[in-house]
Structures are given as C-alpha cells and as structure tokens.
Amino acid sequence: MSTISPETVRQVVADVIREVVSRNATSSPSDGIFPDMDSAIVAADTAWKAYLGCSMKDRARFVKALRDVALIPEHLEFMSRSTVEETGMGNVPDKIIKNRAVAELTPGTEDLVTEAWSGDDGLTTIEISPFGVIGAITPVTNPTETIINNSIGMLAAGNAVVFSPHPRATTISHWVIRQFNEALAAVGAPPNLIVTVMEPSIENTNAMMEHKLVRLLVATGGPGIVKAVLSSGKKAIGAGAGNPPVLVDTTANIEKAAKDIVDGASFDHNLPCTAEKEVLAVASITDLLKFEMLKHGAYELRDPELIAKLAALVVDGRHAVTGWIGKSAPVLLEAIGVTAPAGTRLIIAEVPFEHPFVRVELMMPVLPIVRVKDVEEGMDLAVIAEHGNRHTAIMHSSDVNNLTKMAKRIQTTIFVKNGPSYAGIGIGGEGYCSFTIAGPTGEGLTSARTFARRRRCVLVGGFNVR
Known about the structure:
Blueprint: H1 6-27, E1 33-34, H2 37-51, H3 56-71, H4 73-87, H5 92-105, E2 115-119, E3 122-130, E4 133-137, H6 143-156, E5 160-164, H7 170-186, E6 194-197, H8 202-210, E7 214-220, H9 223-230, E8 235-239, E9 245-248, H10 254-266, E10 278-282, H11 283-294, E11 298-300, H12 304-314, E12 315-316, E13 319-320, H13 329-335, E14 346-350, H14 356-359, E15 366-372, H15 375-385, E16 392-396, H16 400-410, E17 414-417, E18 437-438, E19 444-445, E20 452-460
Parallel strand pairs: 1-6, 4-5, 4-7, 5-6, 7-8, 9-10, 9-16, 10-15, 11-14, 14-15, 16-17
Antiparallel strand pairs: 2-3, 3-20, 12-13, 18-19
Helix pairs in contact: 3-5, 3-6, 3-7, 4-5, 4-7, 5-6, 6-7, 10-11, 15-16
C-alpha cells in the first residue's frame, strides 16, 4: 500500500486554499470602480439587463438602501468633510445639510405614475420605463450631492448609471459609489448598477458620451459640458450654470429679506447654482437692506480700491478664478488685506450694474448690490443679469402683482418668493430636492420620471367595464 508524503499533502492543501480564495475573490461584490470606461459601461449594461427582472418592490428596496447608507450620521460627516478637504470648496455644516436633503427628499419609485385611458376600443396605458445605461457627468461643486441625487432617481426609474465625476472630486466620488455598491449587494441588487472609472478624465467622459450602450446622457455642470452632451447625438439632459438675481422692492419685509439673502448667498460659500448671485434693490430701501444684512454676517466693502482689488483677484474676464470658488468670506477678505470681523459669512459691495461681480457667476460669498430707481427697472436688469439661463431667481415683495410680473418676465426654472434661494430645492421650502436642475434642456428639477421613457401599451377590445 503506497503512502502519500507530507509534502504532497501540503501541496494539495495549498492548491485547495488558493482555489477557494480565488473563487471568493471572483464572487465578491463589485465596488463599481473599473479600470476603463468600456469595462464600466459593459458591466452596467449587464446589470441593467438583470435589473429588468426585478420587481417595483425590489427597486423601492434598493432605493431605500441608498438612502439609508447615505444618511448614516458618520457617513454624512465623512463625505462632507472629505469633499471640502479634497476640492477646497464650501464648508462642512452646509454640505451635511445638502447631503441629507438629497438622501431624504429625492423622489423614488413613487414618482413613476402610470397614465391610462379606457373606452369602447379597449385600454391604453402610458408606462414609465427605463432608458438602460445612463451616463452621468457630475460637478466638483456638488459631487456627493449629485451622485446621491442621481443614483436614487436613476435606479428608481429602473436604469443603471455610469458616473464620470469631476477629476478634482475623484476620491470622495469613489467612496460614495463604493458605499452604494456595498449597500446594494447587501439587499440583493444586481452588481454594478452604479459604476465609474478609476481615473476620471476628459478622455473617459468623451468615451462615455460616444459609447453605443449609453442611451441617455445627464450632465450637471457649466455651459461647456452641457454643450458637449447636446452635441453628442444622444438624448441628453443638461443642468447648466445660473446667475440668480434677487430683486427687493419697497413692499418687502426688509429685515426678513436681509436675513434670507445672507443665508442663501452664504450657503456652502455660495457654491449652489441656485444661490443668490446679485441683488437689485429699489433705491429707497437699499440702505436699510444693507444695514439689516450687516446684522446677519454680511461685511460691506465700501472702499472703491478694495472692491477693485477683490475683483482683480477673483474675476478673469468673463469667468470666476477657479482657485477662489467656494472659499470663505474671511479668506477672500484676508487676500486683499482686510481682517474680517468674527461671524462674517458674506461680502457685500454696492456696485454699478456693469460691474463684473454682477455679470459673472462667482460661486463664492461675494454679493454685489445694485441700486435701481424702481421695481420696473429692477425687473429689466434682473432679466439681463440672469443671462437667459432660465435657472433661478428670487424676489422679496408683498405685492402679488409685482411677484407675478417678475415670475413671468424672468422665466426661470425656480422662482423663490420671500425666502432664501435654497427653499427652491426643498431645503426649508415645500417640494422635493434635486441638484440636477435642467434649465437648458427644459426638464427642470429632475426626478425619477425624468430619467425614464414614456411608453404606450395598447390592449384592443378589453378591460373596459364602464
């Protein structure tokens, strides 16, 4: 009888262990991060096809998993703080508010409402169905908020999504996507419903836009990226820039208006595209408005030389200087040799309408104030300052006729009356939250139904019981 040597036994055991480890590694949940865009998109397409076999209850369960993991207090704190550290923009408390808002207030499967007609010829329904793989481009200004917002809406609509994050927010974007994939795996979702690439870049974004398996493009960012997706030949949703004006007339509650404007314009150091970017105040109340704003953390620059110095620092032609976007008011003041008083949240400066502070979307806590002779002139200038972006506008007034006229004139996607700008995205105002606000392409504040197709299903000669 032959015997097996100890060395042979060790070798067999080692081979078995390697096989088991290899199988476990292969079958472990995907983190959604792929080495190249093609691999990511192919994986998402496979995931979407599997997702078609899931029920609406499954979708709702998967969406709940995304909300739950985003709302863990430690996660809210970590992604908010990490975003500020990686991008150098904004502040942690306000980012926590934004991340919580999108996790709680982004519509899910309840947004997918079926329409139906019945009659002598039968029954027709309009069903809200997925596109398939969506390519989503996210900004450096609101990276985690946009990923959370888009993931919930796009998965609720039955899609898979491949993200192309801004390169300057790569690390935190990867972290969110990994957390989402782990949460989805734990509740039995198909792997790779949410994916991205290891190294986000312009080249990878272009590859995503051109890929035949990507059925819908969603871009959240500046006019350049919106123009690119609209030129792709694919169905595209563009959420572009804004330059929101705020108009204050003589009938406004000036004390409340002042606080609301400071709160809105200083929120996350003015990074949201919805935030107040310039004030048009009727002359007779302008001084009182500024006086009240100073009570709530505004600091007024009065010296023309300092105003010019700040403009030279933060504006380059028709664009804001990237390095100063999302910086705090004290940091900006220190850069021009001014020591900010404690509690300073916002820099205000009265300037002429032609000033670059008015015409350029700064996305930093610098708020120009333009004195106008009456509400009519204020409306005229507000329309010009908004640049036709049709994004957001704000007005403080007790005159319903003035509010109505302004809303019709400005034609923005969001129009906030007598509140801070962020009320328009569900933070302190009624309605759902979205950080993909598609003004250029007309969808408005996006939700699950935005990321779905309308399909007509016709049954002839049946199901009419009237």
